[in-house]
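Service request form, structural biology core

Requester: graduate student, group of Dr. S.
Request type: structure prediction, single chain
Budget code: on file
Notes: please return the result as structure tokens.

Sequence provided:
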Amino acid sequence: MPPHRKNPPPLPPPPTGRTTLSSCIVATIFLTFITIIILIIFFTLFKPQPPTISLTAVKLPSFSVTNATVTFTLSHYVAVYNPNHGVFTHYDTSVHLLFAGDQMGFLFVPAGKIEARRKVYLAATFSVKSFPVDLDRVNGFGVGSGLEVELRMEVAGRVRVMHFFMHNVEAKVECKVAIGISDGSVLGFRC
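Core staff response, request fulfilled:
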């Protein structure tokens, strides 16, 4: 006699269309919620920031005062820091030298790239032709008689975030430089 076989247990009934549909709706809502949270975190952490510009040094290789006119050469060194997680490509960078609101010099800085979280040092030299100065009205930082000039630098460019998104960023800085009239020394600068 053949051994008795046990009958397999009965199969559960197949799910109805309602439970399958509700499972899909719950999964879709969950995935949408997770995607929104990931996008919010992504754009919060990787939000593009403008570069930081700081004036590091100012030198006057030549300076002369003759008959109430001033002639000088001004060299300044600027540090530009890219705080972003992506490469910053600058393409529209300019430096202006002003005295009493009048432009004394203008330079374009060639286009370039600053790697993520890196600092680049730029140097610019202005040769200022003679211009008249009222020696009775010159002022400085309160140390003797001085001449105050203003340096303005504008850096504009793009930051690429995660190789997909391009964001335009721009930074500006204005610095005042006090120059001693008697000897042409740099009395100080502030931005």
